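> forwarded from #structure-qc
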């Protein structure tokens, strides 16, 4: 069975979100579609081709994709946000992630469903829940 055309998928997503199909948007969506896991801005830059887009272009493109809900910030690691497609998450809850403490790879755990946490303390209002588990992946265990 042939892989779906990533270029066409990216363009369809942009059109559905009423965004122009710029080279940067299409390229970043293709990188995230192909990766299937959260990536940092630097990882996105490397995977879209060396020197193809500068950091400002990638940042602005990610911001436009965040604004319309195509992409979301999955988690922060070492002061760098990791981005992924938002199709497996809701506005209030992201699926859990597993990060290997040995190799650093992060895997989406979309098959795990966790209940939304309720604050035990008066006055705290939870707007979004993100869970990241750490340990060893099968390759490192």
């Amino acid at each position: 069975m042939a892989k779906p055309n990533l270029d066409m998928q990216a363009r369809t997503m942009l059109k559905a979100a009423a965004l122009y199909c710029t080279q940067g948007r299409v390229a970043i969506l293709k990188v995230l579609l192909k990766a299937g896991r959260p990536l940092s801005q630097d990882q996105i830059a490397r995977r879209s081709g060396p020197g193809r887009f500068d950091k400002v272009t990638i940042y602005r493109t990610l911001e436009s994709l965040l604004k319309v809900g195509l992409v979301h910030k999955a988690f922060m690691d070492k002061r760098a946000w990791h981005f992924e497609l938002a199709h497996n998450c809701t506005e209030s809850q992201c699926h859990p992630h597993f990060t290997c403490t040995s190799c650093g790879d992060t895997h989406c755990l979309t098959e795990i469903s966790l209940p939304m946490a309720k604050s035990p303390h008066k006055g705290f209002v939870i707007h979004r829940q993100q869970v990241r588990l750490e340990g060893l992946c099968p390759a490192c265990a």
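QC bot note: The first helix runs from residue 6 to 16. The chain has four helices and six strands.
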